[in-house]
Design goal:
Blueprint: H1 6-26, H2 32-41, E1 48-52, H3 59-75, E2 79-83, H4 90-98, E3 105-109, H5 111-120, E4 131-141, E5 143-146, H6 155-164, E6 170-173, H7 179-191, E7 196-199, H8 203-211, E8 217-220, H9 222-230, E9 235-239, E10 265-273, H10 278-293, H11 295-304, E11 307-308, H12 313-334
Parallel strand pairs: 1-2, 1-3, 6-7, 6-8
Antiparallel strand pairs: 3-10, 4-10, 4-11, 5-8, 5-9
Length: 339
């Protein structure tokens, strides 16, 4: 049964929660005392750290470096992107959870934030209680790439090859619990094939391995794979978007290939530690939302294969709850396990 894409679910969820979010924001005290307190609470006196739980060069890191200047402009302080990879992204995410709620530490999350609770079990933080959701920044479909030596020019041919060689084909990912990992798990489950998962510390490493022929395939964002497809170094077989992606129009969707259930996508958003001042959260949200509206930002996101998102902090919080539950079901049904 076809499940709506992450982007479609996001818009539907936002629509469902939109009026509640606006009503909640309308309850923010507007009096002079509350205003004075808010101004005191959001005073930023030193550079802000933006934690990225991956190595430099991947999509999450790239988006962090795009939005960091927006936050910097809002507070008049530098925003330093701090890469803290490890433990399926939980190492860097834990740093955010344990930071003081003074506005000097925020973090960029991706789909692993939503998937890890069900995939990894016990975490060093509570996904739904230890963070202040700020804004959903962008989403992106995932494209399946194979090395040219693989004897498959379509998803159907790849599935046939996998069934003929059970356990022989490998797929890499940016780490257990990442969106690209679950995309592979979806492919394994929906197509009924035996694929071996190999986790790396970041997207760059997994791409390098498939370029070298050490692994069979990898899911990645269009930004991570488009240049390799254009150069002929890798072959694109399918994309997880509900319709063909404008940036790679020749790549058929998984739905076209008869595997509509393969619909994982990557998401990126900003969160901070729990109990961040509401005024600070809103100020960061406003700054990022304004930055996403700039024509040059939209052109850059399109070039990288991202769709800008946005929305209020309240909407983002509700979306995180819904998506965490959704991915828990996917993990259970697919039998995905950490390695």
């Amino acid at each position: 049964m076809h499940r709506p894409s992450t982007g479609m679910r996001q818009r539907a969820t936002y629509a469902a929660h939109g009026f509640a979010a606006l009503a909640g924001l309308a309850l923010v005290p507007q009096g002079p005392v509350a205003h004075a307190q808010s101004q005191a609470e959001v005073r930023i006196s030193r550079p802000i750290r933006m934690i990225v739980p991956y190595v430099p060069g991947g999509g999450t890191d790239t988006l962090a470096r795009i939005v960091a200047p927006f936050v910097s402009e809002a507070f008049g302080q530098p925003v330093l992107v701090d890469n803290r990879p490890g433990a399926s992204s939980t190492l860097g995410t834990q740093i955010v959870a344990q930071a003081a709620p003074d506005g000097h530490t925020i973090g960029m999350i991706d789909a692993a934030f939503l998937i890890n609770p069900s995939l990894l079990g016990k975490l060093p933080y509570d996904t739904l209680k230890d963070f202040s959701p700020i804004v959903l920044v962008a989403t992106s479909p995932l494209v399946l790439l194979v090395h040219p030596s693989v004897r498959a020019s379509s998803v159907k041919e790849l599935v046939a090859l996998a069934k003929a060689q059970p356990g022989r084909l490998t797929f890499g990912s940016a780490g257990n619990g990442s969106a690209v990992h679950l995309a592979g798990e979806q492919l394994r489950s929906v197509a009924g094939v035996d694929l071996q998962h190999i986790a790396y510390k970041g997207a760059g490493q997994s791409i390098g391995e498939v370029l070298g022929g050490q692994i069979t395939m990898v899911f990645t964002t269009p930004s991570g794979g488009r240049q390799h497809v254009a150069s002929g170094k890798l072959r694109a077989l399918g994309i997880t978007s509900p319709k063909r992606f404008a940036g790679m129009p020749d790549v058929p969707t998984f739905a076209e290939s008869g595997l509509a259930g393969v619909d994982a996508a990557t998401i990126n958003g900003l969160v901070g530690p729990a109990r961040l001042p509401r005024a600070y959260v809103q100020q960061v949200n406003d700054a990022v939302m304004a930055g996403l509206q700039r024509r040059e930002t939209q052109e850059r996101l399109q070039e990288l294969g991202f769709d800008r998102a946005g929305g209020t902090p309240t909407q983002f919080a509700a979306w995180i709850v819904a998506e965490t539950a959704k991915w828990a079901k996917v993990v259970k049904e697919s039998g995905a396990k950490p390695e």
